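Re: the request from the purification team.
They wanted to know what the chain is likely to look like in 3D before they choose a buffer screen. I agreed to run a prediction and write the result into the notebook, where they can find it.
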Amino acid sequence: MSMIAFDPQLPLGLIAALAGLSLVALVLALWRGLGGWWLRALAALVLLVALAQPSWRQEDRLPVADIALVVIDESASNRIGLRPDQVTAAIDGLGARLDRLRETGGLELREIRVRDRGEDGTRLLGALAEAAAEIPPDRIAGAILVTDGQVHDADALAEFPGPVHVLLSGSAADWDRRIVIETAPAFAIIDEPVSVTLRVEDIGTAPENGGFAPLTIALDGTTPLRFDVPVGESVTLPVTLGRGGVNVLEFATPQVTGELTERNNAAVVSINGVRDRLRVLLVSGEPYPGERTWRNLLKSDSAVDLVHFTILRPPEKQDFVPVFELSLIAFPTQELFMEKVDEFDLIIFDRYKRRGILPNDYFENIARYVRDGGALLVAAGEDFAGAESLYRSPLRGVLPVQPTARVVERGFAPRIPELGHRHPVTADLESHAPRPPAADGTPGWGRWFRIVELDAPEGEVVMTGPDDRPLLVLDRQGEGRVAVLASDEAWLWSRGYEGGGPQLELLRRLAHWLMKEPELEENVLLGTGDGGDVAVTRRTLEAEIPPVTATSPSGASEEVAMKEVAPGRWEGRIAAAEHGVWRLENGDLAAVAVVGPSAPREFENPVSDGAALAPLAAATRGGILRLEDGVPDIRRVREGRVAAGRGWIGLADREAYQLRDIRQVALAPAWLMLILAVALAFGAWRIEGR
């Protein structure tokens, strides 16, 4: 290819300024009537041409093919219903049409396949931008996007060197029903209702508008509650949490005939249940060193409201002091043990014996309180073995042990049996001892010196005393929990006797287990999303457990092998888990785990729509066509022209080439132009001199 090329010696602006001055000088010469004005004009023109430095340029060009990019959406939303078949047919049809263009030369095809990226959704335009960055812009003929239009990076590509066409899968009649959580609290107080605002709505071309939809609410996989809610309207539903820790609420509405998918018919909210205040009633039978230990433990927790009742003046004490001279006030036993007993989270009897202060009606009410979900702890002194023992009251029906009337008084180091190593209350307690265990297995903590002999324990014995006698027994009664500590000398550990021991840790765990704190449940199945995996945890007192059955969000089931990582604690993992709500089952226990969003971003709006890609298509003179109308024809169009019409799309003809050789000859050598300009100026001077 031949052409005239210019290589200016001065900036074009300066050359233009010089041309302007030459023109002014020419006008002045004409005005003054100078005879050699035309020679001066030629001299100025010669100088200007010399400054522009023209040359004859010959290029040896090798034509190269333009490149068309075909981006195929393989995301989850584009695999719904008939869309995979539409995409396959479109790829085959486009391939046949592009093959015909390739046969005529001048076109190369590059195919890009894009999958969704979990919570990031479909990054279709990002993939197109990365592919285009590897190609010279003057070779890009255009791009064809085969997608359902649901992309999540619409701002990743503001412009493109060629026309961008969108071929939409799906149908213009697509519609879907989904649940949208509008507001949900991150924390909620246990046993107090909180509000969750949500909306069940139909998107796309729904066959009907309005009406009601059934909605279920399940807490941690339990039996769901059922409601009927209006479609398309926000509703606020009350939810009450019954336990602490993370509570998983699953909202679901059944699939309706004709909708695209049921993957967004469920939504999950995780709410952390917290106790507003833990109310504890501590009843001490008489002052002794361990009483302050209980007070220090309970008062050290700012979330605990402690009511402490100590019998300082038993009925048998007769010192004839007038009542009006006593500084003590009457204790409201009727109010506490009858009217407000259900307001307490835990009742502790510490070295208490029956003295006629609390009648049997009070104890019967406490037993009823335990069966209805309350918590009772008995820290037994030697009186527990006597005739005034609490066992000889109506509490006998909820106590898991029976005293033998014998008190053993000799030094012993409390031991953790095999069952205790599995129970969360005493598991790994020996690691909190002030020193390592002895060679004979004796724990590295100090001794106690008194234990009440117990018989026929019905619950779990998690600590033992001398000769393997039960020391700490835990049991469940109805909906409530009971613990019996058969010694009143735990305070020796807090005083550091013989090095002391983990008294604070033991009593803290014991109190929290009684108040049903989830981290101390001994028989529980838990599932959590962990970096794209499902982490399964099973705590049990059994030596063996069956595999956990896991059901994926898409309905596929698999068994999760569990490995015992610590006594009573089993763990398993599902790697690269599908996003959504997983359901876990093991025996009679059930749990749910959420990986990523409950409804993956791909299914937030699965309706086929080109609105997100319309700005890019319009800016590049491309088009948006539906595959249900057939695969469009492909034409080559001139650059800058409209590239889409009814039933066809166009790819720009960029006329790209590869430069192989350049030959360039100067048309106006500087020395020649200088001689010519001087000769013309001299001629003008001679004419004007005459």
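For the purification team: The longest strand covers residues 193-204.
Please add any questions underneath this entry.
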